[in-house]
Amino acid sequence: MGQREYDDFKLLVKEWKDSHPEEYRAFVEEIGTKSFRVYNKMIALASRYVSGFQKAVRKQILDSSCGSVDLSELVMQFRQKGLGEELLRQFNGQDRKSIVPAMLAWMYFGDSFETMVAHGEDLLSQYRYNFLYRAGIVALIKHTIDISIKEGFRTQADWDSFRKRQKAIKSGEIVDWAVDEVKMEPPEEDTVEAEDEVPRRTPGRKSDRRTLPELLFDDPERYMAKIGHRLRTYSTESDLARLYIALVEYRIMRQCPIKTFRNALQAQYEDIRIVNERGIQRAYQNLTTPLGPNRKLMKDTGDDRAAIEELKAFLSD
Q1: 20 to 30 A Cα–Cα from 144, which one of 57, 67, 80, 224?
Q2: What does pTM read for this prediction?
Q3: Where are the alpha helices (DSSP H) in 172-236?
Q4: Residues paired with residue 216 on neighbouring β-strands, in sequence order
Q5: Which one Pfam family would you cite for this protein (predicted)?
Q6: pLDDT tens string 44-101
């Protein structure tokens, strides 16, 4: 499946989620319980394509006490056995009992990573497991978080927020956590401004309400069509932060506050739910954080730079 086919398929999954709210809600509620019934169904599905799947995962857990997890062999077997094609067949099928549509919607658009980590923490709190098993769970939690960041599904800021919330739940200090979260929200206009284009807000100045056509330099109709197509498949906080960076670096859009950018997108694409500016701000701050002794920004390294360059190529195509 190429990138375009993948984007189209992800859009189909999003459309299914939006048109089947009850089925999706039921799946999310069940997977949030501690019965593990849905997990057993997913494991059974995987086991039909890779014999010994459960045994391989169990071995991986027991062999991962040092903190590293290598699931590459299992992933390769899934590809060779055609698991992806079977998931596509079941998604397009008429079997209402199949968990595949809801499972894919949850994995793409739900709190899938957070739920898996929370379940891992629940297992660690059950003292009936021995040291090796518990160490393996720790390794798998670390692997889940690492993959989510490397693949761009979550940011470091997302996991920091999740960690604080989990700590508050366990300690019972929910009110303190909620108050701190509210205080962390930055003033609505004190974000990402270009000194040569958008003056810093002063008392009495109206908020920046420029529309997307007003923010774009040239050929706005062409770029708005491309941006709209992109938003229908890439709409997380990280996706929008990268989109902002690509648009500004490629001189397609003027620099502006993140709030202005977010509101302009929502006004232009009313049929798409644009995430709150606070999450985009956090993702942007994460991408513009200096790393290592050379102080290179995160957006200029590794997968983040590759994703931004791919975005530029898409916009210029």
Answers
A1: 80
A2: 0.48
A3: 174-184, 212-215, 220-231
A4: 253
A5: DUF6043
A6: 766 665 665 556 666 655 565 444 555 555 556 555 556 666 677 777 776 677 888 8
